[in-house]
Amino acid sequence: MPEDLDPSLPDPGSLKRGRFSYFPVVPGKLEFAIEVRRAILREKPQVIAVELPTTLRDAYLRAVERLPEMSLILYNDEQEEDRAVYVPVEPADPFTEAIRSGREIGAEIVFADPDAGERPHLPDQYPDSYALRHIPLEKYVEAYRLWPQARSQQISAHASGIAWKLQGCDPLANVMVVISLNLLDPVLDAMESPQAQPMARLRRQGVQVLNPHPECLAEITIEYPYLQDCYERFRAQMDDAHAVERRHVQFAVFRDAEKTYETNTGERVAHWQRRILGRYTRNLALVNQELAARIFDITVAARSIVDDNYGWEVWEAANRYPAQKIATDLMTVKISGEEVWLDTKRMRLRRRLPSKKRRLRPVGLKPHKKEKSPGEWASQLNGASICSYPPEDLVIEDYGRFLKKKGKSILSEERARSEPFTTSLLDGIDIRETIRNWHDGRIFVRNFQKLHGEVGAVIVIFDEDRDDRYSYMTTWLGEHQNESDMAFYSTYPFDNLVGPGIGRGEYGGTIRFRSTWCTWPRSPRARFSATSPPASAGPSFTFRSASYRR
To answer: Any idea where the domains of the chain sit in the sequence?
Structure first.
């Protein structure tokens, strides 16, 4: 019977073994850093042992003292002379948090890895740490330990060296062991018997602590800097869990990127693009067998759904870490992710910011005139009448004719039909439909149905004017048979004077109609309100104060 068991016998699956309490973690993951800090503040152990090399103790403690500024530990690889090893020290790493929280409560910090040789390569495929938002830590660890990994002689020797270091801790103190989840079971088995001191190096030459440049943090850190900055603010109180919830932080990155994107390009991210961004980042995470997207997937989604400019702004927002400085007492280095990690991914962002068109100016061309005194050009406006700039009239008329042709061609395409070949090729073979139905062994041909009639009025909406930018509304009647009647709304042209009595405005929307016998309402803008969404910012046009009206 279960009640007859000896209560002094330890539970084989328990992580509490006498004075040792084992806390398995996934290196570099934010959720485990939160759990480590909560456990240390709750249990207040006298000794905290971390799975870090003893030869890097001084460098790690120096780097932890610099937090929240991140650091980079550099040392030479003894197996390859021309290769160096970089170790980022991040605030959201559970080992870093264990050292940091342990020093806050006055606990003794023990570096449990004796550095007896190169660390064996263990499988580092873990369930996504975001699952800790929905399941307890014990369930997460239990699910991982159900499928034990194969052990080699190198793994057993490495675990024995850690066990020897732990067995040498203060015998009267409670010890919390923060160890990688994939090394937990080998260390537990090694702790069941006394271990001999391994042949380990006592010190490592050429260890340096460097200051990484703020622009390279996103490439070298496991968690992106914006998330780590949120964690740095969260760890002081440990109250608002939503502040470090990955999906909430991802939304905040998109929101901050939108602001700079609109400032730099003048364009906005539509609501439907935000919805697709959330769906696409979720799908990218699932493809990588994760629950929440990483910075690379977030940037790929931003570039794919919006454009390269927005992808750049998302990367810059995710790389934002205000605590990191360029000028420090350490050497500042800018390195790439390829120098720190293996199997990195590359992505090219082609940033295209709006700029003025540059072209060669002929020699002898007079420069643009300027006012001799402020208000000189405005004084030449009498307000009685206006006229348009004839060269721009030709451009607008050509644009209207182009839209008519384009609209008619689109309607013609919509009326095209594909049908099986019988007696006539009609308007040619439909290659796409033929290949699609190749299994039927039939040929399909296109049948373009003629569109009768012509395009009448043309309505173009460049901006729906949700912010009430376009306050100027008027109607023009064509002067001759080559000009159309037009009603439009625009910015007030004489707020932007470009010459004596000449003002330039920006269209918000226009309607063109080939009829001089049409009576327009007082506000032509009312006719535009039921049109399709805007295409882009409107073109400019020029007015000149004159004694006649177009």
So the answer is: 12-212, 215-219+228-339, 378-409+454-545, 418-447
